[in-house]
Amino acid sequence: MSSPTHHSSPERLRRGDSHGSVGSALNRVPEDEEPSVHADWELEEELLLEEQGFYQGSYNRLVALYTLAPVTAVVTFVLLAALPNIAFKSEKPHVPTYPYPAILPFPLLEILASIALFSLAHLLRNPIYALSAALLPFPLPATLLSTTVHTLLSTAARLFTLSILLVQRYALHPHATWKDPAFRRVWWAALGWAAAEAVVSVHQGYMGLALYREVLVPIPSSSSTAASPRSETERTPLLPQHQPAADLDTEVEQDLEQLIALKAREELEDVFGLPLVYIPAFIPCLQRFNSLLLSVGLFLLLSASQIGANLRWSLIGIATATHLVLAILHAPIVLPRIGVHGAAYVGSVVSLGAFFAGLGVWDGVS
């Protein structure tokens, strides 16, 4: 008697029948291999573009995402500006004893003074680096020297801001306390410094993104990637074409502009360690948040050293060392080695520590 015939059901074919190879053939349908093939092809396309000096992405989308950074700065500034009136509201508020002029009421004078001193310190950054590079021919020592000198200059500028505002002279208490009107004056001076720093940083970010306007290639749509990989000639991206120059001088000028932009992009990538368009939008937002907290913390520490005689030089040393550590982490030679992400996360921890330390010396966390 012949053995019964095996009938293969669709379910058995999907699981793979041990009596035949039909199931194994169905398990290896071409559709299962398409995602990996397309992923490899997209990676190859991206590497090919980078070799040619181009990047995938949309300039308008990058600008829109980077706009989250100034929005974060504004929101953080507003929250910090409202914090003294919410968390440090005294039952018997003191009238500010400083003789404010009619045209510069509180806190306009504190904001303008800190902005002016920050601008001076910022303008001296490049001359300090040029002088350091002239004294030390090696990049790393020159960078560390210029970073240290600029940090000391910034600390001196903050102390000078507090001095010209006469914070110590018009303080009502012999020691630093949040119940003193000087606390709010120092707070607004710190916010003014942080606001100026945020404006400069955001402007530099937009200028950096503008350098990539002409080298961004639109990302292929899903419908185009669903097709089979194209040949080498078909993978040439459609780059933005410039209008033909009317004369030779105009064409040479356009070429020079492209070379200048290329040089600026290379210098920017040397600073960050990667192309600016590859930095996630969350990182600039975190940096703006850290900058505001750090500014308030440093000003509170330095002002407490002026009002109270105890631990004066210790507080100045702590504020200077904190600022110096973060400045070295963001130095052009050090930042690529630790990464933009790592520097931002370390900056968050240090900035929060400086912020609460400043509140602590003013009895704001007791």
From TrEMBL:
Per its UniProt entry, which superkingdom is the organism in? Eukaryota
Biased composition regions of type Basic and acidic residues, renumbered to the chain = 8-18
Hydrolase: present as a keyword of the record? no
Q: Which residue ranges does UniProt annotate as crossing the membrane?
A: 63-88, 100-124, 292-309, 315-335, 342-362
For this UniProt record, give its keywords in alphabetical order, as a comma-separated list. Answer: Membrane, Transmembrane, Transmembrane helix
Write out the ranges of the annotated region (Disordered): 1-36, 223-243
Put simply, this protein is called Uncharacterized protein
